[in-house]
Amino acid sequence: MHLILFIVFAGFCLGGAINLLVQTHPISSALSLIVVMTSLAVLYLLLGAEFLAAAQVIVYAGAIMVLFTFVVMLLNAGREERTLGSRAAWMLGFPSVVAILAVLATVILHAQGLGVATLGEGLTNAQGSTNIEELSTVLFTRLLLPFEVTSVLILIAILGAVALARHGDGDPNGKPTAEKELERTAAK
Amino acid sequence: MNSLFSQEVPLSWYLLLSAALFSLGVLGFLIKRNLITVFMSIELMLNGVNLSFVTFAHQWHAVKGQIFVFFVMMVAAAEAAVGLAIIIAIFRARATLAVDRIDLMKL
Amino acid sequence: MNGYFHLWLIPLLPFAGFLINGILGRRLPKWFATTVALLAPLAAFGVVLAVAQPFFGIGKALSSQPWVETCPQAWINAAALHIDFSFVLDQLSLVMLLVVTGVGFLIHVYSVGYMHDDEGYARYFSYLNLFLFFMTVLVLAGNALVMFVGWEGVGLASYLLIGFWYQKKSAADAGKKAFIVNRIGDFGFLIGMFLLLANFGTLTFSEIATKLGQDPGWTGGVVTVIALCLLLGATGKSAQLPLYIWLPDAMEGPTPVSALIHAATMVTAGVYMIARNHVLFDHSPFALSIVAIVGAATALFAATIGLVQNDIKRVLAYSTISQLGYMFLACGVAAYSAGIFHLLTHAFFKALLFLAAGSVIHGMGGEQDLRKMGGLWKKLPVTFAVTTVGVLAIAGFFPFAGFFSKDAILYAAFLQGPNGRILWVVGVVTALLTSFYMFRLWYLAFLGTSRSPEIHPHESPWSMRGPLVILALLSICGGWIGMERFGGFLAPSVGVRAAEGGSPHLELILSGIAVGVALLGWLLAHLFYREKSTVPSTLATALPSGYKLLANKYYVDQIYGVTIVKPLFAVSRIFLGWVVDVGILGGIAWLLGGIAMLSGAILQRWQSGNLRSYAAWLALGATALLLFLLVPWSTVLASLSVLHFGLAGH
Known about the structure:
The complex is a heterotrimer of chains A (188), B (107) and C (650). With 188 residues, chain A is mainly α. Helix content of chain A is 74%, strand content 2%. In chain A, helix 1 (2-22) runs antiparallel to helix 2 and helix 2 (26-46) packs antiparallel against helix 3. The longest helix of chain A has 27 residues, at 84-110. Chain B has one domain (11-94): Helix Hairpins (Orthogonal Bundle), CATH 1.10.287. Chain B is built from three helices and one strand, in the order E-H-H-H. Chain B is elongated. The longest helix of chain C has 49 residues, at 556-604. In chain C, helix 19 runs parallel beside helix 22. In chain C, strand 2 (76-78) and strand 3 form a beta hairpin. Strand 1 (116-118) of chain A pairs antiparallel with strand 1 of chain B, so a sheet runs across the interface.
């Protein structure tokens, strides 16, 4: 059971990731990434991390990726073109990535002491204790401070995002700066 | 029959998958021309790392691994918000999202 | 030797005066600076008188042993080299100290009047006290290194005082010239010290004398070299050939400075040093003869130049060089006490002459040219009287001081064999010239009628006249102690010269010749320079080249300029200036800057702003790090080497 599920959803992961690279339009890449996220949520479930699976779907797939999609549609940048630069990057990048993967794979395969993942096995297997209980026990007692700090971090991020995304120096009622720049480059 | 329907998957396979996801993220980061797509590759890298954390949490029955993933998710959310805001600001100034064309510090 | 001797007080009191006047003098009223400045040499003189008692048998028992004071903390104590701060008081240093502090005090008093209106009043006295400090250190030194400290120090004080009016370029240049020429002599002194150290292992004078006395094998060779090196130092400090050129220029300084430093004390340091090292010189007849020749030649040379000088101070400067030549001549014929005797009398009458000249200059409102003076005997009677005394003394008339000492030197030279006769002749000719140019000065400055009627000279204040009178009295009776008694007094410290073939009869004849020569000089001067005489001008037009040669001081300065100074400047400017400074050092700096700029230009390409290239480099770096951390390099290298050896084996 575990194996079949693993193979299927790992396949979805890899397929989505490769598709992200292959696609030219960013919206297609975003949708592929959503596929990757949700398959990863399933894999978390298989590994006994129920809370994280739920968080993955809610936060990552449900919020972050939605944000991405919004921005893509807002900016409407269009398809990517093939240029000289991208060909050069492909030439240089692909071998180095292959090298990284080779090294990592070698290390993983030669590692001693890696066990097996058993379906249904939880964190502690203690009776009456669920994954989320164990997680929250640690989170709200020992790691309370980082937890609170993280919430402050998110607050800061909100403030930053609002400040950055506002209309800046340009005339708020007039044309956006981008259009002015386009006119300027066109006039030259 | 036994092998295909077994309840056990070697953890190294999970780790290999995580490595593959990470490498694909790096590849996308290097190759892609659209700024948003580059950012998405970064998210892909983060997810690959999250998977390896959860794997090891399962291996050693340690809750620390999952806590770490929790925090990574939070930070990734904050980072995504701010990053996308920056991208919007850049787009407003440069009217382009091509990575090669955004090479000056001053907007 | 019992009783308290505080030799270290003698240098210390002037040093305290230097500090106080140097730091506080300017802010406090003038009387304070004057009091401090006068108290210091007076107190030092008092201490000298106190410590002199045993040597004269006054108060304490008569003793002729030198008194040594050594600082318990050694100065240099490194392996074989051991040098102390030690002061030695014996008859020789006592005589010198009496001159330095006594005449020094009188000149300090004189300076109060002379420098009264000067802005740098306190500074002047602090420098003067500094000079006294170093001079006393020099005289009291028990070893060559302490003497060298004093030696250099008086050179420094001389530089400061010559260039006292530093705003005047000629004064500043003269100070520089004095210091630099002195330095050349000091180089000789240093080499001499090194050789002494290498051969005797010590610099203490008494120890060297003992070692020389013990081993009769010390003759010639090394000793000659050491003596000649020391002689070079002495010629620098005492303005002998070839390093005399600084002394005439040193007349740029205030006249009391010329009196103290360049007549009575500093320039005599060379003579003192030779007398101090007399044992060394005695062991090298060759060096002694060189000393005598240098002395005699300088005496004649300087006297000829002094014949035609028009500046009153320059005449006296060349006269000083000439008289110092006499002292060197004395040392050269191993008559050290005669040389010191002449040092003593010369201090009296030369200081007197300089101070009188200062009085004239002061009275004439700064005029120093003899051709513009005249008829001062009426206006400056006291000055005239003392100058007459001084001129008679230097010319060697009986019974003034110069007669006894000059006579002693000429007598000792005459007895030195055939070469001595030649030196005697030179000495006598020089005496003739000395008398001539001194009386020339006397006639031109004082007698006749005034050639500058617009100047109304006035007599100096009593602060200036007082020391003049005292020095005049000393010039009269300073020689009455007689060479016999003086030589006997100094014998424990400088030894006795074995007189060969002398007799009182011979001595009388030689003195007669000397006095006769002096009279002849007076007569000639009278002929040349009496009122309405045109002899000098006709002589000058008759022998124009001769006159020019003398008037331009044999062009020595110009010769030195061309042969030494110009090449040095050229080397400095071309080689050191262009090759080393601009080429090598500038090149290094330029190279470093160039490297920095080049590497910056190369590295600048890296910061392209291109996100993808940054990403690529990031990935590359991460890959390298991963490889470095994860790959077991030791096993890889081991397997590689196995492979290599395996291949090589085949």
